[in-house]
Amino acid sequence: MHGRSLERHATRFKELTMSWTTPEVKEICVGMEINDYMPAEF
Q1: Which tens digits make up the pLDDT trace of 6-36?
Q2: Coiled-coil annotation: which residues (predicted)?
């Protein structure tokens, strides 16, 4: 790659690495209960 071709490649690479999509959060009911907790010092 020479000159402009290298610049275009670097620009495209930066666009791909810097892009971000917001994660989608889903709550799933699994029917479990908490019956014990770990101590804070653990």
Answers
A1: 677 777 777 766 667 888 999 998 888 888 8
A2: none
DSSP assignments along 1-42, one per residue: --HHHHHHHHHHHHHHHH---PPPP--------------TT-
d(CA 37, CA 42): 11
Residue owning tokens 């907790």: 37
Indicate the pTM of the whole model: 0.26
The owner of tokens 């019956």 is 35
Q: What is the DSSP letter of 40?
A: T
Copy the structure tokens of residue 9.
């490649």
Q: Which amino acid is at 9?
A: H
